């Protein structure tokens, strides 16, 4: 594999590491935030969801800048948002100001979920694209693990009234490293060629390929696909011709969050405390969950281009049903009477759940969404998939504390399990396989027919 391709993918994926860190870091601060700002229940859920509202805005707003200004410039803007969000959250003394800075960091996370997979997919050869785009997911789970570990270490070393500030502030370190490394990677050649910078795009393709034959093939593929798209330079997104890929992106993104993954990531220590674990044990068990997440993700990335996307989703779906069913049963059975043994059962159940997620949805979602959309709408397609993901993430994260508090953990996990029955049916009946297909050929493989007259809003996606 070309060394520059690997370096570019790693640097872009570092944005994913900060994404993961930001996602999980708040799990160690919920108790301190309750004490500091006098919040609980649904208000705590809303405070946690503030960053997710930011991710919705970031995901919704990233598509056009990514297509207009380029992948690399947007990645630089994301790095700046990460730094501002981290330091602002750490220094806040007012709940509203805290929420604003969490929102700012969330905008960066949402934009990263759009931009990093697109960039990586466009600099990667088809044979390695799954693994390289999967590096984004690997770094997300590595960031989650680092956040759990960082929270545990800070909780041991820093007084409890200020520990939460350090937990947020330390995220600025990888964000600064990310910003420092970005100038060393090239802009996406596909984007350069799509905006008329042909010579730069061709030069970057030659830098990103290992032989002249490979470079010529890539140049021809991109040139052909761009010529085909020239007939509809202002093509609408929500059209009949795009309906299939839009619904595929919506489904995989919605199911990702309806599994309950963000409820577990954001409230892991709280779930363990509900199951009878002490404060230190809750933080340590969260680290264990993060470690399983990382190991299962690594396993998935080694086979995603061999087994394909559908098989990983099938294994993950079955794992969801086993783990969520078991967790619901444990919480119903031991409700109000948790002991050391039942706490261990919850830990095992959550480990199986995290492994199922990491091996299936976690490894597949961003690869799949970055692959299925045609070149002419890939930026908007990735934005739509990320937007769907973060809307459902915000809903789940906001409502979980209230539902678990009012109805119990068993009911919350049962709801997630029922949703995952739907995912299993979708994987078996609907989800296509995309492994090894060049991006320029994906449209034909998925059976999409590009209608050059399908330019305006007059042909809505959902019919009349």
Give keywords.
about 475 residues, mainly alpha, 19 helices, about 80% helix, disordered C terminus
Note poorly predicted spans.
452-464
Helix content: over 70%
Major sheet summary line: none
Query: Mean pLDDT, as a whole number?
Result: 87
Total E-strand runs: 0
Class by alpha and beta content: mainly alpha
- Report the C-alpha radius of gyration, rounded: 22 Å
SSE string, helices as H and strands as E: HHHHHHHHHHHHHHHHHHH
Q: Helical region count?
A: 19
Query: Termini separation (Å)?
Result: 49 Å
Q: Which overall shape is indicated by the principal axes computed on the Cα atoms?
A: globular
Percentage beta strand: under 5%
Task: Set out the fold topology.
Elements: H1 3-25, H2 30-37, H3 41-69, H4 71-91, H5 95-123, H6 129-157, H7 160-169, H8 172-181, H9 189-194, H10 198-208, H11 212-230, H12 243-258, H13 261-274, H14 279-307, H15 309-334, H16 340-372, H17 378-407, H18 409-429, H19 439-445
Helix pairs in contact: 1-4, 1-5, 1-6, 1-8, 3-4, 3-5, 3-17, 4-5, 4-7, 4-8, 5-6, 5-16, 5-17, 6-7, 6-14, 6-16, 10-11, 12-16, 12-17, 12-18, 13-14, 13-17, 14-15, 14-16, 15-16, 15-18, 16-17, 17-18
